[in-house]
């Protein structure tokens, strides 16, 4: 028996498409709107709605705006969806999302397992406010650095309030030895790392500078396991960022991550700062 349109699977979608679809479905359910109602009223066919909510697409600004208006979405919710829609690419293994960070933050808050490897600065979830401020001073002037720092703190609070997620971070040893801000800022940052490392769902490791490892070839990336069926890889560069959701490629990165984790040490040395 041939598969119907409504039975098409994940292989027909991209990660960004699935995130758009999940958010549209959430907005519809929160608004108490049923698919059949929209179909009968002529607003949008049930088949089109199913394709949009399941990640199939195709997505357009007109459709997203119409649905957001029908569901009474907040402006910021619609803006995020329009940003993702703009960068949606059907059937792409590497899914560009530009330089905006919204999709990453939302995925981070839903992921059950996060593994970040080969970072040369302290991971964002582990940074103190003063360390983050020191990093902000190294980039072009921000319109509101205090707001960025507050948002980072809120991001950390949301993640560490959860009891259903684990975090593994493997950093280059230089993250401990390269001073950001003053000596006192680094000293407090390292004390903070020790406190966070004591949490049962956190594993912080460092790769000694005199030890060869696979990250020297593959570079930095973040593996995010959302559930038993969805794991994605996030990679960031100066020009933007990429999401990789193809299962074959993700499996390859998992093996690399395991190797890099094994190469790391949990010793946060005294006097590093």
Automatic annotation (TrEMBL):
<feature type="domain" description="DUF5753">
    <location>
        <begin position="103"/>
        <end position="260"/>
    </location>
</feature>
<protein>
    <submittedName>
        <fullName>Helix-turn-helix domain-containing protein</fullName>
    </submittedName>
</protein>
<dbReference type="InterPro" id="IPR001387">
    <property type="entry name" value="Cro/C1-type_HTH"/>
</dbReference>
<dbReference type="InterPro" id="IPR010982">
    <property type="entry name" value="Lambda_DNA-bd_dom_sf"/>
</dbReference>
<dbReference type="Pfam" id="PF19054">
    <property type="entry name" value="DUF5753"/>
</dbReference>
<dbReference type="GO" id="GO:0003677">
    <property type="term" value="F:DNA binding"/>
</dbReference>
<dbReference type="Pfam" id="PF13560">
    <property type="entry name" value="HTH_31"/>
</dbReference>
<dbReference type="InterPro" id="IPR043917">
    <property type="entry name" value="DUF5753"/>
</dbReference>
């Amino acid at each position: 028996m041939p598969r119907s349109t409504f039975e098409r699977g994940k292989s027909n979608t991209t990660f960004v498409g699935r995130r758009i679809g999940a958010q549209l479905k959430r907005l519809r359910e929160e608004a108490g709107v049923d698919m059949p109602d929209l179909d009968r009223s002529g607003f949008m066919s049930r088949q089109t709605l199913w394709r949009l909510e399941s990640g199939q697409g195709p997505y357009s600004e007109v459709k997203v705006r119409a649905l957001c208006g029908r569901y009474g979405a907040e402006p910021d919710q619609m803006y995020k969806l329009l940003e993702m829609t703009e960068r949606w690419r059907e059937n792409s293994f590497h899914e560009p999302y530009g330089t905006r960070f919204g999709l990453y933050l939302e995925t981070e808050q839903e992921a059950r397992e996060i593994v970040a490897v080969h970072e040369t600065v302290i991971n964002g979830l582990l940074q103190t406010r003063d360390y983050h401020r020191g990093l902000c001073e190294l980039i072009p002037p921000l319109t509101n650095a205090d707001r960025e720092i507050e948002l980072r703190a809120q991001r950390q609070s949301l993640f560490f309030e959860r009891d259903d997620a684990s975090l593994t971070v493997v950093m280059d040893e230089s993250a401990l030895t390269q001073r950001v801000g003053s000596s006192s800022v680094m000293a407090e940052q390292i004390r903070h790392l020790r406190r966070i490392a004591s949490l049962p769902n956190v594993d912080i490791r460092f790769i000694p500078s005199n030890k060869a490892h696979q990250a020297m070839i593959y570079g930095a990336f973040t593996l995010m396991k959302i559930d038993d069926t969805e794991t994605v890889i996030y990679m960031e560069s100066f020009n933007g960022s990429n999401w990789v959701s193809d299962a074959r490629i993700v499996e390859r990165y998992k093996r690399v991550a395991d190797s890099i984790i094994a190469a790391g040490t949990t010793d946060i040395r005294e006097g590093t700062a």
